[in-house]
Structures are given as C-alpha cells and as structure tokens.
Write a structure and sequence with these properties.
The complex is a heterodimer of chains A (220) and B (106). Chain A is 5% helix and 64% strand. With 220 residues, chain A is mostly beta strands. Chain A has a single domain, classed as Porin (Beta Barrel), CATH 2.40.160. The relative contact order of chain B is 0.23. The chains are: A mainly beta (220), B alpha+beta (106). Chains A and B meet through β4 of A and α2 of B.
Chain lengths: 220, 106
C-alpha cells in the first residue's frame, strides 16, 4: 500500500486530534447511484436524506433534519435541498481517501417560537478507509437569523476481518459528536456496530447515556 | 464446391464466433462493497458484458464478454475511471467465471 500523502496525513492527524470524530456514510455512493439514509442520533438529532449521483463526483437531493436540544426545549425542523461534491479522491492499492463538501438551502421551523425561516447549510467530510480500519471526520453547519448550529462527528472503526463483496462486512465503531448552539453540552460519545452487505447498511449502538444511536442506508 | 463451403464455414467461425473472453483488471481503491456495487452496475450496462466479478481481496474486476464481443481497453479504463477508480492493469484470459471463482476462493 502506498503511503498516505504527507499533507493528507497531516490533515487527518490534526482532525483526529480535534474532539469531534464521526464516521458517516458517504453522500455520493457511486455513479448513477441513489442513496437513501435515515439516522437516529440519541434523541438529539434525527435525519433522513435521499441523493442521486449522476457521476461519482457529485450528487443532488434533499433531506429533513430534526434537532432537539438536550440543554433546553429548543427544537429545529429543517427541510433542505443539497448539492454534494467530491473534489478529491485518493485510490491506493488497498485503501481509499476522500474529501467531500456540500451546501444547501432550506426552510427551518423553530419550535420555541413557531417561526419559519430560510436557512442555509454547508459541510464537509474527510475519510480514509481500508478493509480493516476506517476513520471519518464530518462537519455540518446550519444557519438562519434565529440560530446557528454546528455538528461535528468523528468515527473511528475497526473490522474484525477483511470482508469481500459477497461477505457480510462487520465494523466496530466509536463515534464522538459535538454540537454547538445550546443543543448538547460536551461531546456525545457512542459505541456502534455496523453491518453492510451489497447495497444495505445498518449501524446501531448506544451513547454513554444509554440512548440509541442508529443509521440505516441503502444504495441502488 | 465442398472446399469453398468449408472455407466459408471456417471464415464465419473465425470472425463471427471469436471467443467468449475474460478481461481481468487490477484496480486501486477497492475497499468496500459499495465500490464493487458501483463498478458492477457500470460494467453491466455495456452490451458486450455477460458477467462481472469483483474481488476486493484481490483488487480484481473481471468481465466475461458475450461470444464474439469485446470491450476495448480504452472503454474499460473510462468506465472504471468514471466510476471513481484507477485501473492499474488489464489482462485478457480464457478463464471461465467458475475457474476465477475457484481460484479466488483458494
């Protein structure tokens, strides 16, 4: 396997040292592919998304995000359209690394006031994976006149064996997630187990507080 | 008359029914099932494709072509590049899909 380019390795090391690590599914599965995803994030966030990728470089689609503050009674319901772009991919002999960025517009319903506002969001993801280890750092920023939230997620995963296309892939994953904007105090840590085979992906586990963290994804 | 018929038959066999060949490609970046799924989907769109096999372990993408059909190297490279992967080598063999599977399972 080739060595990770120095700049990327440095970036990964820097990102890994930040308190937020999260392995999230890629927003672009493959060319002419559709991705449908639903995530339940320990009661703090719930999200559904659907994207279509005409090429492996970009995808378009939309989603709905519900945020429920663990600190107070604030809630946000954001429905959005999004454009995802893959500016850089590294294909190594037995590994792959990607940089994704995205941005979108939507409508946010603010629970505590009942108001509806135009909102925009932007984000990015850096990931590196082999068939035995996986790391992903993702950040999402949502902004409207009444709020701004950032959600940073880091995932580090280890596979007990190297899967192949026809075998079930199993991953043990640790996830750390940080919320800004009075959504959650501190970092929300979770231990997850992930299964995927062919076009289906299931991930489930619990946070340190014992709350469910789960994700379901299909690519076709 | 008989000889000309034989010659015609031979010519037809040689040109029309060439071979149901196998194309084996070594590919970088194959690390997950979704990679394999995307590549398989892309290659199956080619009318010359009969069967596709992807092995992450062996970094292998194999295509068995239909009888008398072939896919140019340039088209294969473009298909894999457009799917987001790097083709490092292309080799044409006469291995059947069963032979490939049993070789990979060893």
């Amino acid at each position: 396997m080739k060595m990770l380019p120095g700049r990327l390795a440095l970036s990964m090391a820097f990102l890994s040292s930040a308190a937020c690590v999260s392995a999230v599914a890629k927003p672009i599965a493959f060319a002419d592919g559709t991705t449908v995803m639903a995530e339940y994030g320990a009661g703090t966030m719930t999200e559904v998304q659907a994207f279509y990728a005409p090429t492996f470089r970009y995808s378009v689609g939309g989603g709905h995000l519900s945020l429920n503050s663990d600190v107070n009674d604030d809630t946000r319901d954001i429905t959005y359209v999004r454009f995802n772009y893959l500016p850089k991919r590294w294909n190594f002999e037995s590994a792959q690394a990607n940089v994704f960025v995205w941005g979108g517009l939507g409508r946010a319903h603010i629970g505590e006031t009942g108001a509806n506002e135009l909102t925009w969001h932007a984000g990015g993801q850096l990931d590196y994976e082999t068939r035995r280890v996986y790391s992903s750092l993702r950040t999402d920023y949502y902004d409207a006149s009444a709020f701004s939230h950032r959600i940073d997620t880091l995932q580090l995963g280890v596979a007990p064996y190297e899967h192949d296309y026809e075998t079930l892939a199993v991953w043990f994953v640790v996830q750390g997630r940080e919320y800004t904007g009075d959504l959650f105090n501190g970092t929300e840590w979770a231990a997850l187990i992930r299964f995927f085979k062919h076009n289906a992906w299931l991930e489930a586990g619990a946070t340190r507080e014992g709350k469910l963290q789960a994700m379901l994804m299909f690519n076709f | 008359m008989r000889i000309s018929s034989l010659l015609l038959s031979f010519t037809l066999l040689a040109t029309g029914v060439a071979h149901a060949g196998t194309i084996e490609m070594t590919v970088n970046g194959l690390v997950c099932g979704f990679c394999a799924q995307g590549i398989e989907k892309t290659l199956r769109k080619n009318p010359a494709t009969q069967e596709v096999l992807v092995s992450l372990e062996n970094r292998l993408v194999a295509v068995v072509t239909k009888e008398g059909a072939d896919i140019a190297d340039a088209d294969l490279r473009k298909a894999l590049t457009d799917a987001g992967y790097d083709v490092k080598a292309i080799e044409r063999t006469q291995h059947s899909m069963d032979e490939l599977r049993s070789r990979l399972n060893k």
